[in-house]
C-alpha cells in the first residue's frame, strides 16, 4: 500500500477560482470515494450521509461542508476498508484533511474536521454508552487512535471553542454508515461549498 499524500488536488486548486475549487473538490470525492469506508458504505456515501444528517438537523453551511469533507484525509492518503488500513495504523487523516484545506477554508469548517477523531476519544471517555454503540470497525480504530483520553487531554479538549461542533459532527459521522440510503448528490452541496470557500 502507498500512503503518500496526493498533491494533485492542491496543485489544481491553488490558482483556481472558488467555483472551480468547489468542482475540483467534488470531483475528487466522486472519483476517489468509490472505495469502501466499511462493510456497508463507500467513502463517498459516508460523506454524503454525514452531510445530509448535518443539513437535516439545520446545521450551519460550514458544518454541513465539514461533514461532507471530514474524511477527505482518508482519500488523500489512499486508505480504505479493503486494506484494513485505518484499522491497523493511524495516519491522522483528520489532521491531513484540515491542513490540506487550510488555504481555502476557515476554522468553522476545518476545526470540527480536525477534531472529529479526538471527539470520538472524548465521547468514549465520558460516555460508556457511546462506546458501546460504535460499529465494530470504529471500536477497533479507536484503539489505534489512542483509546480513552487522559484527564489532561479531556481538559484540553473542553477548552476548544469548536468542541460542540466537533462532537456534533462526530455523531453524524457515526450515523452516516447506512447501507443503501438515498441522499442528495454531491451537486446538491455545491452552493454551500462555494459559499464557504468565498467566506474564507
Ligand atoms: Fe467519518
Could you list some keywords that capture this structure?
single chain, 200 residues, Hypothetical protein af1432, 14 helices
Describe the 3D structure.
The protein is mostly helical. The protein has a single domain, classed as Hypothetical protein af1432 (Orthogonal Bundle), CATH 1.10.3210. The protein is built from 14 helices and no strands. The protein has helices at residues 8-13, 18-32, 43-56, 61-69, 72-76, 85-88, 93-101, 107-114, 116-126, 128-133, 136-144, 151-158, 163-175, 190-199. The chain is globular, with a radius of gyration of 16 Å. The protein starts with 7 loop residues before the first helix and ends with a helix. 42% of the residues are buried. The structure holds fe (ii) ion (FE2). Residues 46, 70-71, 173 line the site of fe (ii) ion (FE2).
Portion in strands: under 5%
Q: Which CATH C-level class is it? A: Mainly Alpha
SSE string, helix = H, strand = E?
A: HHHHHHHHHHHHHH
Please give the radius of gyration in angstroms.
16 Å
The number of distinct structural domains comes to 1
Q: What is the percent of helical residues?
A: 55-70%
User: What's the multimeric state?
Assistant: single chain
Amino acid at each position: 500500500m502507498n500512503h503518500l499524500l496526493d498533491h494533485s488536488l492542491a496543485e489544481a486548486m491553488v490558482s483556481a477560482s472558488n467555483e472551480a475549487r468547489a468542482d475540483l473538490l467534488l470531483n475528487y470525492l466522486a472519483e476517489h470515494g468509490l472505495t469502501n469506508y466499511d462493510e456497508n458504505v463507500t467513502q463517498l456515501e459516508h460523506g454524503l450521509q454525514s452531510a445530509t444528517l448535518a443539513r437535516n438537523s439545520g446545521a450551519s453551511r460550514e458544518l454541513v461542508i465539514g461533514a461532507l469533507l471530514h474524511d477527505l484525509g482518508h482519500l488523500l492518503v489512499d486508505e480504505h476498508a479493503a486494506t484494513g488500513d485505518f484499522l491497523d495504523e493511524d495516519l491522522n487523516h483528520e489532521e491531513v484533511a484540515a491542513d490540506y484545506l487550510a488555504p481555502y477554508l476557515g476554522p468553522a469548517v476545518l476545526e470540527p474536521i480536525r477534531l472529529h477523531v479526538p471527539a470520538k476519544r472524548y465521547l468514549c471517555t465520558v460516555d460508556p454508552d457511546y462506546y458501546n454503540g460504535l460499529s465494530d470497525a470504529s471500536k477497533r480504530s479507536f484503539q489505534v487512535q489512542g483509546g480513552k483520553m487522559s484527564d489532561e487531554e479531556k481538559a484540553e479538549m473542553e477548552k476548544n471553542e469548536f468542541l460542540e461542533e466537533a462532537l456534533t459532527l462526530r455523531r453524524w459521522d457515526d450515523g452516516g454508515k447506512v447501507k443503501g440510503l438515498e441522499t442528495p448528490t454531491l451537486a446538491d452541496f455545491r452552493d454551500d461549498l462555494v459559499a464557504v470557500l468565498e467566506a474564507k
